[in-house]
Amino acid sequence: MMERQQEIELERFGAFEVGKRMLTLAHHHHHNNRILNAGRGNPNWINTKARLAMARLIEFGVSESNRTICSGDMGGYVEEEKIGERFRQFVDPQRSVDQFLLKSLNFVHDHFGMSEDDFLAEMVNGVIGNNYPNPSRVLKNTEILLNQYLQNTLYHEHDLAGQTELFPTEGGSAAIDYIFHSLVENELIKSGDKIAINTPIFTPYLEIPRLNDYQLVEMNLRSERENNWQIDPKELAKLNDPTIKALFIVNPTNPASHAFSPAALHAIAEAVKRNPKLMIITDDVYGPFVKDFQSIYGIAPHNTLLVYSFSKLYGATGCRLGLIAVNKHNVFDQLIRESPADKKKRLQERYSIVTMDPDNFHFIDRMVADSRSVGLYHTAGLSTPQQIQEVLFALTDLLGNGVHDDYIQRARRLVSQRSRDLHIGLGMTSDDHDLTGDAKYYSLINLYSLAEKRFGHPFRQYLEHHFERIDFLVQLAEENGVVLMDGVGFGSRPGEIRISNANLPTEDYRLIGRQVGKLLARYYQRFKKQKEESRSGSD
Ligand SMILES: *Cc1c(COP(=O)(O)O)cnc(C)c1O
Fold first, then answer.
1. What tens digit of pLDDT does each residue of 11-46 get?
2. What is the pLDDT of residues 252-283, one digit of tens each?
């Protein structure tokens, strides 16, 4: 059994590190139980269509390359001229993967006027990957199609695809990393600056600003359970303070899994009117899990950097596929243009090795350059096979015309079913179940409220005051083999536990709920026994 002192030490680690250690505990101690790790957000499903399409394009690309060199295992480059014609001869219209690719050809021609040869050459060269990404920020047709995908899933009713520039990155993780890095390199946020963070939030947004390199002053704008995880408009009023440089948001939130309400979006729009240089960073990784989702980028397009990742929806965490989106007219470029002469000079020196006109080098291109320490700008950019894999995921949505994307519906139904089962297993009425804006990717359960509801207020107090915060999670891992995540690392209040609805077979979620209930009952037995002993002792 873990000692209290060890638990205190464990609580100092980041949430994901604690999760790892819990998993080790579960492996060492669990008795007859199977290990159920619902700590991580890694999904247990994948999108198959886009992956098959990728494989098929590689096959075609190799046959194309053998047209120019065919010597042992050696092929040559791919010729663009009439590549569309050859592709139509190559495919088998009976195969569904080929049907998908043929429909894609028609779609990009009909909707965007792309030439078949131009589009296919980009895709085929892209998957073969024998050229540096060019342009390094993003391939040409790739940017158009990814923008349309973001239009369908995130920009929603604000027509922004035509005025948005993209930088595909190695997952959302690299996007976050590049953003922090370039904001600091360009002195848009300096050590000691105030930044606002909507908490609870995905841990890196709390952990990165605390690192020595940044030393930012964090101000929490809280979303509370009592308010259905919506940010209080009073909290948003704090943004009127112009010394607040930036606002960091995950929307829909992680861990609470809720999208910002129309009222909150409105309050943000108002705050931007009063604080027009506010920089907003919104991470919309879970956006497509919410019907009619509206990104903050649509509300404040000139102030917002948008982070997206294909990891979760398409089950592609190992592929590392993400992006940054920024409006062509944005406050980041404006702030750089308006900076004092001495700072401008420093930045001119930094970027003059890669551009003739460093003053007008856009912030998004600075992120591309900074991502490779400026000096390696000419080899920067996301690998081309990764860019094409992003396009293929996007096309699975675009061909459904964004109206009825069967795959997205399935993903939503899957996490929703698991969330419902978990609540049933916990014996909780899930009347709060179909609220709009709930992505259901994670469930956040309050252990103390659950304890109170089941066994009364004194037991809740006993649990809160007699044990380390993570004692319950440690016991759950050791005795029941169930690994869940402490919400405190995300900035949640003590007692909040995050359960990922993404990474276990659906039939396990009731079991998790029941195991939590069983362990709670065991704590209650101890509590009762202690009470009885102290009563008989005082007799
Ligand atoms: C999972 C996650 C990411 C990381 O995405 P990757 O593409 O896997 O790097 C970023 N932001 C949030 C909010 C996430 O939950």
1. 888 778 888 888 888 888 756 678 899 988 999 999
2. 999 999 999 999 999 999 999 999 999 999 99
Q: Is the CB of 496 under 6 A from ligand 1?
A: no
CB 202 within 8 A of CB 250: yes
* CA distance to 206, 265, 286, 356, 360, per residue, from 178 (Å): 16, 26, 20, 23, 19
Whether the upstream peptide bond of residue 200 has omega within 30° of 0, thus cis, is yes
With tokens 């308010």, the residue in question is: 227
Spell out the alpha helix ranges (H) of 11-139. Answer: 15-29, 49-65, 83-90, 96-112, 116-128
283 lines ligand 1 (CB under 6 A): yes
Question: Residue 208 C-alpha to ligand 1 middle, in angstroms?
Answer: 14
Between the CA of 322 and the centroid of ligand 1 the distance, in Å, is: 8
In contact, 331 and 364? CB cutoff 8 Å = no
* Distance from the alpha carbon of residue 52 to the mean position of ligand 1, in angstroms: 24
Contacts of residue 153, defined as CB under 8 A and 6 or more positions apart, other chains included, come to 287, 288, 293, 397, 402, 408
Residue 83 pLDDT exceeds 90: yes
Q: Where are the alpha helices (DSSP H) in 164-232?
A: 171-185, 204-210
Distance CA 129, CA 57 (A): 12
Please determine, for residue 430, whether its predicted confidence score (pLDDT) is greater than 70.
no
Q: Domains along the chain?
A: 4-41+405-538 (3.90.1150.10), 48-128 (1.10.20.110), 140-385 (3.40.640.10)
308 SS3 class: strand
Give 71 Cα–ligand 1 centroid separation in angstroms.
43
HSE toward the beta carbon, residue 513, CA cutoff 13 A: 21
Looking at residue 191, its pLDDT comes to: 85
3-state secondary structure of 107: helix
Structure tokens at 20: 């790892």
- Indicate the SS3 state at residue 327: strand
- What does the alpha-carbon distance between residue 132 and residue 116 come to, in Å, rounded to a whole number? 22
pLDDT score for 9 = 85
The residue ranges of DSSP E strands in 125-264, in sequence order, are 164-170, 194-199, 217-222, 244-250
Q: How far apart are CA 369 and CA 347, in angstroms?
A: 12
Q: Is 171 in the pocket of ligand 1 (CB under 6 A)?
A: yes
Q: Which residues of 43-70 are buried (b: 16+ CB within 10 A; e: fewer)?
A: beeebebbbbbbebbbebbebbbeeeee
Q: Which of 309, 324, 415 to mutate to test the pocket of ligand 1 (most atoms within 8 A of CB)?
A: 309
pTM recorded for the entire structure = 0.95
Separation of 285 CA from ligand 1 center, angstroms? 6
